[in-house]
Design goal:
The protein is α+β, with helices and mostly antiparallel strands and 538 residues long. The protein is globular. The chain has a single domain, classed as Cytochrome p450 (Orthogonal Bundle), CATH 1.10.630. The chain binds protoporphyrin IX containing FE and 2-acetamido-2-deoxy-beta-D-glucopyranose (4 copies).
Amino acid sequence: MNNLKFVNIEQLLEKIGHIEFSPLTIFKASSITLCGVGLVYLSRIWFSYRFFKKRGLKSPKHEFFYGNFRQIHKNKNYSEMLREWTKEFGKTYGYFEGHLPVIVTSDLEFIQEVFIKQSTNFSARKKGFLSRKDDDPNSDLFQSTKGRWKRMRMIMNPTFSSAKLRELGPILVNCADRLIDVLNKEGDAEINVSEYFKRFTMDSIWNCAFGVDINMQYDKENLYLKNCEQFFKVTSNLMLPHYLGLYFHEFKEKIVFFLIIMTLVRSKFVDLDKLSPYFWLKTKIKDLVNKRLFEKESRKRDYIQLLLEACGELNSERFSKNTEFKKSLSAIEVENNLILFMLAGFDTTSTTLGLSCYVLSINSDEQLRLYDEISAVFGTDINSINYDSVQQFKYLDWFIKEVLRHYPVGNSIVARRCTKKTTIKGIDIPVDTPIAVDVMSIHFDADLWGPQDPNEFYPPRHEVKRNPLAFMAFGNGPRNCIGMKFALIELKIALVKLIMNFEFLSLKSDINDLELEEGVVRYIKNGSKVFIKKRFFP
Ligand code: HEM
Ligand SMILES: *[C@@H]1O[C@H](CO)[C@@H](O)[C@H](O)[C@H]1NC(C)=O
Ligand SMILES: *[C@@H]1O[C@H](CO)[C@@H](O)[C@H](O)[C@H]1NC(C)=O
Ligand SMILES: *[C@@H]1O[C@H](CO)[C@@H](O)[C@H](O)[C@H]1NC(C)=O
Ligand SMILES: *[C@@H]1O[C@H](CO)[C@@H](O)[C@H](O)[C@H]1NC(C)=O
């Protein structure tokens, strides 16, 4: 039997040997192969487009190859688009990113299953346009999946406890004082507050995460600031590789692999630090972490230190099968997660602050109410504010939540990816299917947020206990925003200082006048322009 096969192959080789490999033959053969592969791929695309029909789900009309992505991308209003579709197709439907089917839902029962009850079956995020392999050892908390995510999250959760955040309080107060100082120099004027808030959140992050105190708020040309801003521009613009990853989603990981190889090759010829702000940042952070590793018992209480010292208090039995399980983060994991904190905490928080000021400027009643609440406690002496004292302001808490209900900024990341085939409400979900939440439909649902009209800006609605899934600004379930408490404290400290020092005025009068644009996060088009007027104390 074996012999026979052998002979056959030999004969075959002989035959092949007789074929003449003229350029024309090679050309013909390769075009036929290419056509074949192309046809297989085309039929695959064609087959993908039957995903929703097979499951009895509705979906908006799509273009072949592009799916619905051009509709979403052209207008840069993903959140509004989903909401519009929900009105047309109901609470659960689907759309196509290229030929990748994405299930969209604003059905709280569905979300309860995906985000909470079956969270272990959905233990990955929806992939970006480019993504690394699942369980790549270089992935950070945001990108990682399954056991790797679980381990990191358990180690990192305690670093965001109230006790740890209290220690960061004075740093945040200090940064807020600088913000006030800088704004004071502008005097009474109409200014683009977004610019100042960006520098404030960046200053806060460099101080809290890296223990680096540089002149970021005063010096507009600061090198750290410049490089970080550049980095954000690069990460938020879609470029050719992103489009390739988007429309040929089966090859996302291969494209990333190729990009990494290209970078390695380029690093032989050019100094990468100078080439890309990402490498500049990465080198900087690596140095900071390394320095700290050799420094015994640093007194600094920043996130480098917290993460290096963090040690999961886990039931190791559950993980004993996994030999790679470690209770603490490696130096590389600390570096990657620090970069993540900067990415995740910078645009989101500064935009929320910009939105808050915009709302204050067109809403003098809210401003007065907050001013009264704060001055009733502090009088006019706000030098004594700290982590604990800003937490007592109930109305301020409602106000921030109402800003984030009305203008949720992180909608596109409130999504999961199926990691174990399962069924949700009778719909079978194959592995790798992304489930995206239509946050806007939930936040403006009168049944969830009534009786006051959800289109109205009305902070007291947060006094009533609501369904916990009705507020999605920080996501939900075990994989919600890990920085939520940090962000809320930062926002509260900044807003208390701002409200006590300035009055915000506007020429506009309607809350719906604001134009938002959306990439990974939503931001205010052209920034938030308000007139600031110094308050004078008698
Ligand atoms: C107003 C400010 C912020 C908003 C609106 C916001 C929003 C969000 C949202 C919607 C998610 C996805 C949650 C989900 O999928 O269920 C998220 C995840 C995350 N956020 Fe935030 N965020 C903010 C500030 C921050 C800050 C300051 C940090 C860092 C210190 C941070 C770090 C993270 C991380 C690490 C994740 C991923 C968690 C995981 O996958 O386990 N965020 N954020
Ligand atoms: C999205 O934005 C475009 C242009 O900016 C606008 O014409 C369209 O109506 C918007 N779509 C929704 C659903 O708001
Ligand atoms: C206001 O500041 C933001 C943030 O730096 C910027 O993106 C925007 O272009 C600025 N707007 C104007 C009108 O300069
Ligand atoms: C995950 O999905 C499986 C079906 O594949 C199901 O039996 C199991 O109950 C789900 N897990 C949870 C926690 O619901
Ligand atoms: C934003 O700026 C552009 C050009 O600077 C202008 O055409 C547009 O009207 C502005 N939009 C808003 C909402 O101010």
